[in-house]
Amino acid sequence: MRWIKELTDPKARRWEEFYRNRWQHDRVVRSTHGVNCTGGCSWLVYVKEGIVAWEMQATDYPRLEAGLPPYEPRGCQRGISFSWYLYSPLRIKHPTIRGSLLDLWRAAKEEHSDPLAAWGSIVEDSEKRRSYQQARGKGGFRRTSWDEALEITAASTLYTIKRYGPDRIVGFSPIPAMSMCSYAAGTRLLSLLGGVVLSFYDWYADLPPASPETWGEKTDVAESADWYNSKYIVVMGTNLSMTRTPDVHFVAEARTNGAKLVVLSPDFSQVSKYADWWLPVTAGHDGAFWMAVNHVILREFYVERHVPYFADYLARYSDAPFLVTLDRGDGERYVPGRLLRAESLPRYRREENGEWKFLVFDRLSGEPRMPGGSIGFRWQREAGRWNLEMKDGLDGAEIEPLLSLLDGRDDVLPVSITDYAGGTSVARGVPVRYLETATGRTPVTTVFDLLMANFGVGRGLSGDYPEDYNAAAPGTPAWQEEYTGVGRETLIRFAREWAGTAERTRGKCTIIVGSGANHWYHSNLTYRTGITALILCGCVGVNGGGLNHYTGQEKVAPEASWSLLAFAKDWTKGGRFQNTPSFHYVHSDQWRYDGGAADPRPDPKGGPAGRHPMDLQVDAVRMGWLPFYPQFDRNPLELVKEAEAAGAKGDEEIIRWVVEELEKKRLRFAVEEPDAPENWPRLWLIWRGNALLSSAKGHEYFLRHYLGTHDSSIADECAAEQVENAAWQDAAPRGKLDLVVDINFRMDTSALYSDIVLPTATWYEKDDLNTTDLHSFIHPLSAAVPPCWESRSDWEIFKALAEKISALARIHFPEPVRDIVAAPLLHDTPGEIAQSEVRGWHRGECEAVPGTTMPRLAVVERDFVHLLDRFVSLGEEVKREGIEERGLRWPVADLYDELLESAPVREWGGKRFPSLAEAVDAANAILHFAPETNGEVAWRAFRSLEEKTGLTLADLASDYRGTRYRFSDLVSQPRRILTSPCWSGVTNNGRPYAPYCLNVERLVPWRTLTGRQHFYLDHGWYRAFGEHLPTFKTRIDTEESGHLAKSRPVGKALMLNCLTPHGKWHMHTTYYDNHRMLTLSRGIEPFWLNDRDAEEIGVKDNEWVEVYNDNGVVVTRAVVSARIPRGVGIYYHAPERTISVPLSPLRGNRRAGGHNSLTRARLKPVLMAGGYGQLSYAFNAWGPPGSDRDTYVYVHKLEGALRY
Amino acid sequence: MKVRAQVSMVFNLDKCIGCHTCSIACKNIWSDRRGAEYMWWNNVETKPGTGYPTLWEDQEKYRGGWERTDREPRLRLHSRGGGLAKLFFNPRLPTIDDYYEPWSYRYGDLLSAPAGDDQPVARPVSLVTGDPINIEAGPNWDDDLGGSPVYGAHDPNLAAVSEAERRQLFLLERMVLFYLPRICNHCANPGCVAACPSGAIYKRGEDGIVLVSQEKCRGWRMCVSGCPYKKVYYNWGSGKSEKCILCYPRQETGQAPACFHSCVGRLRYLGVLLYDAERIERSASRPDHDLVQAQREMILDPSDPEVVNKAAEEGIHPAVLAAARNSPVYRFVKEWRLALPLHPEFGTVPMLYYVPPLLPLAADRENGCYDLGGEFFTSLEQGRLPLRYLASLFSAGNEEIIRAVYRKLTAVRVHRRAATTGDVPAGELERFLAEAGTTPEEAEAIYHMTSLAGFDERHAVPPFMREMAMEMSVDPADRKGEAGTGFLRPPKRGW
């Protein structure tokens, strides 16, 4: 055709070099994005003329085993827009400080030559203090020098230590895995100082408490490639397209490979487009769905049919066959009691740790028997008996545990089963045997029999069992309809397909789950009901199966060696680790606004169940369950001196003196009067995160009580009458913090509200390490260009701060000082078998014994003069002690010496140390000592586990003993992590990582009470709160939430449940302000609501709305969409307050807030339990999370003219 | 027979997650410049929706592409003579409101705001005027069914479905969305080329890439109108039109285009197609019902000896022929008949192809409860979108073609379910394969390509033999030493 111009003429095409020139570049460097997204994608950064011009994904991941799709490419829309930040107008180029503080400082320095005196003159003068606190967040930044900014920070640090103690200094940085050396820089400094490291995983509500509850592990999940092995995939409360952007292709590919995909989500979420079935389960009520699924599975696959794979799996790998005592409840009814302890039977009376060994009913002997593997075996003197072989712990005889006591039962007793959603209770017959125990004739049943009663499967037993699926009794398919909106026929089909697939494939069914399910107050229950369906069908510890929870890039693959550096364990054991939810609930005074008990519960009389969470929080600290800092109402350095002045000699006497002071109430825990000035946190260091908004549940209370600036909460304080354990001050303090220092590369909300902002290198300007749980590679961040403008890497910043502190310490702390550190009873230590019953020493129920009935206490040395030297040197403690992780310990002295020979060294104090002066040195040290990156270490770690279990395991590492990764290797290509006993998957020969394969295949126990997966949690608080069995509780209702106690609908307003799932155009707040992302979205994070809901209040698409409750207010644009269910508003997590946020007429025409202006932290008491097996504290692994989904708001059209 | 080689592409929409990584890869490299702010050579749209620029599919509004006449296809915009008359007034251009007014924010205020009594904020400002702006449109404005009553409900393809079906689509139990990534289609019968009064637009002989010469373009913008996909953009800074260049600088160095490289859903495939240029007109002129079939016929079998001979006569390098035989695109389009052109009725013979997405089962709602039934997987009868809607997009209304694609896609899944799980009832697998007209071998091959294929299998970039191309004007040995020397200056306005 004549008009088609086909051109080959080279002359006419010379211009083509126009675009070729654009593509030319000078350098390509491998890096990644240190953002909490779990992506962990390897990127190539293109440098042109010394400027980063763009980035593209690396595609050279080593392939896994044949028959799996490859990982390439990984990296999403957010990551690929990162280069915009480097030279953007948001970039922090120079050290920056609030002008009002700078003026005060310079004036003070005129008067006081000593920086500490200068700092004191500001913060001790209430007027001066108020003047810069009130200015927080309101502009007036000025450029300063590194020297001046560091001097102020260092002076504040030492001033705080001297005046109040090091435990008034806190640091927050999230998710080490995304850039682990940068994280470690700050925590290493804090740990050497004695400062407090704040957790993140639980605070974000990303920690799934059901994981420690069931498996004793904070989270252990399959890498995304393993999804491909699954044949039935349920996606619940997670939006893979949005949040697992680089991985979701495995789901699409698994579907092509014959897997069915079912999505549970209240809205037609983006991942729903992939689904075979989309089930719009009512928000927060997925648990009811799973309750009924379990009902169907138990009935059809356990009672009506016998499936050998399921039954055998359940008997060996779960607590289902373990014996539980039944206690008398109300009237004729019984209630499930504690697991039957071995020591309560004559046969096992002399067993070591007999209180921590548990029993099954053995078919062979016809008697109760004590299989190995329970926690008592883990911590007994004789090693080698902690394993899952079904043998009696006493004589080694084979055991065949009975799942049920139905056959050969002595009796059937009515057991009370409560429907918390309906507020009713029924009695269901449970088969029992009577045993003669230390306390007399005791009825016992099995966990399995309790499950049958719990899920309403009758087996012909007496009691209130439903006749069929159509009965409206708790647990049936008909019952769940009311809560989920899913029809019974659909549910029944689902359950059959699920279990049928698992039966065919030996467990290849998976639940991929995330924050949409996990951010609810009762998330642990939702998860436990789903996990039940997995365990009942033998799906855990199988490639292609299991619970895959991805929220928060929590997996630091080389954790053992990384934590050594990060928490300065090479120098000191005196780290202070704080669970952040408790910290913020208490210190930001959110407890004062908490109306109390939010749990539906049958019987609040007596016990913990009727008490205010603050009271329980205080008790949890007293009993050593949860940490709390500041720990006491006195300076811990002074406390040691006082003890010595009182005649205490040596650490033990000092500790004894401190315990006596506590007993006599002369010394108080700070948590008992958190609002007293001596108990406030004083200095807050923030790096790698957005602590003041993105993650700050109850943001407005942060502004009010921490910062002392304006806020938009109208909530009343309402806890005064309810709280007994904590002293109430009539006026809550405003502005507790003396100084907030933010280390940042961009002007985000935290930077905007901080006193000092230090410019940090971006992810394209520094060297670091990166891992995630979504894939099994370790790979680097590396510097494509040097840190821009005056920025420095986090490692260099904390080094410089250490140098400044060391210099000032020569005057103020010329000699080492001693510090007393209080810490909770820890998981994976003998402290987890400290408290078999709940007893309070403070109530006189037991003696005060540190490390048993109350927190551990330790006296440690702090050497502030040598702070820098220690920071940059790998201490000899590791050489002496070896490396310890998850209760294992292995020697590394020769490897330490190897570093002295082969790596840079530091010399001081007459000794040589491996150097950590550069971030690369730190990275290499991490790689050198980690089982996951050094085959020899893996082998040694497995040897250690062999000793503990008596199993053969080191063969898993023997093929890789010679493998060593160095930083430069990772720069050339990502490397795959090695199989390690610190984790539970097997990655040999390209096999995809799936959790608990080691447990299932090699009989290594789970780190739980019975050593098996737990359905049943017999801790006193769990029974008091009715969470001993997997059950369903509805979301917290509007009234109990307390969010709308004062707020009233204004004009045409609608009340909605406000959900904040992860957004498409940002990772939390990172990338939110990025021009690319704002352009591809609506230029703001809008509020999504249903089209008919919008019509009701007269709101059209893109119009401005006010969203508000008692906590605060948001003003944004509405997106009207039929994809959102009625009654729900979605405000994707997480916007910044810095971009396009107008004033709110409703709240005095002041700047409106962000998503966390609408939330308030709330603690769930059962999750505070401690000193009890898997219910024991571990940093980022246990404790009540900061849930945020049970939040209600009003929304109405913004009236009047829009004003900025 | 006139054999031509075309670098062509397939988008497997089932795997598209609408993440826009492709869009940004492209933006970062090619259109992050003054005058190009609003350009998205690659964009991704939510369907149902109105897209970018808004309602681009509505040719009553834009008059893009070709009209079929009794004699030969004619540009909808104008005849060539008529075009000259309209040089200075072309009413068929999208306005800035049809695209969007590019904006930014006063980011600097956050750092520089003086001490005040409230928090400073970065206000949105227009990138055109610099003044505060009320943002009312963007390049991805109706993303994920945002504003569904305004945008989703006015998708031009919904004209193909009944009023009742249209209403149902926005009920929760029928709700559906999918994504449509779009770049220049590098058409065989490009409207932009035909519309250009300056002769600045051409199709490269060796690979079929359509380019706007930045030397010859005079900014008449007839190409913008002539392209029914609205994939040519006017750069207000340089005064020239620009468009997707299919990353020829990357392809010439053996790399896939940036949007393809960065596709994290792994849904894009690239490879050479051979086609018969003599059949272009016939392809474009057939009745709607036959358009897809005609286009399939235009594509030549690279293993056919006659084609190979003719190709050699045309000077197509043997390595390019080898690449054509190894082309995943050929398999999707011609062998498996799974990949379809986007709006073939526009008449430009677009050379990019789409595999329609699988969709969730539709549900019923009874007594307030949501119920699903029927097939284990998605089924034709209960899919959430009427076939007519998909036919409006990909087959000029021919539903049978869409049905055949779905039958085959489902058969592949059933085949793999049977192979891996074994719970497909006896006879079912055979029934699925037979209805789809496929074999276990073909199903296995499709499974392999859609699931397992690695980067190099998905992107069979042909060799460009640059030394031979260069040799026509400059000695490669000289070029080796001098390439890159010289002064780089931004283009000047040509008029």
UniProtKB/TrEMBL annotation, chain A:
If you read the UniProt record, what top EC class would you report for this enzyme, in one word? Answer: oxidoreductase
Q: Which family does it belong to?
A: Belongs to the prokaryotic molybdopterin-containing oxidoreductase family.
InterPro entries linked to this entry: Asp_de-COase-like_dom_sf, MopB_CT_Nitrate-R-NarG-like, MoPterin_dinucl-bd_dom, Mopterin_OxRdtase, Mopterin_OxRdtase_4Fe-4S_dom, MopterinOxRdtase_cofactor_BS, NarG, Prok_molybdopt-oxidoreductase
Query: How does the record say this protein sits in the membrane?
Result: Peripheral membrane protein
**Where is the 4Fe-4S Mo/W bis-MGD-type domain positioned along the sequence?**
26-90
Q: Give the superkingdom in one word.
A: Bacteria
Q: Which reaction does it catalyse?
A: nitrate + a quinol = a quinone + nitrite + H2O
Write the protein's name. Answer: nitrate reductase (quinone)
Q: What is its main location?
A: membrane
Identify the stretch(es) annotated as Disordered. 594-613
From TrEMBL, chain B:
Query: So which cofactors does this thing need?
Result: [4Fe-4S] cluster; [3Fe-4S] cluster
What are the subcellular locations of this protein? Cell envelope
Matches recorded under InterPro entries:
4Fe4S_Fe-S-bd, Nitr_red_bet_C, Nitr_red_bet_C_sf, NO3_Rdtase_bsu
Q: Name one Pfam family in it.
A: Fer4_11
Q: Please tell me one Gene Ontology term that the record gives under cellular component.
A: nitrate reductase complex
Sequence ranges assigned to domain 4Fe-4S ferredoxin-type in this UniProt record: 7-35, 175-206, 208-237
Predominant cellular place of this UniProt entry's protein:
other
- Output the PANTHER family linked to this UniProt entry: NITRATE REDUCTASE BETA SUBUNIT, RESPIRATORY NITRATE REDUCTASE 1 BETA CHAIN
Q: What is the protein's given name?
A: Respiratory nitrate reductase, iron-sulfur cluster-binding beta subunit
In its UniProt entry, the species of origin is given as: Geobacter metallireducens (strain ATCC 53774 / DSM 7210 / GS-15)
Give the gene that encodes this protein.
narH-2
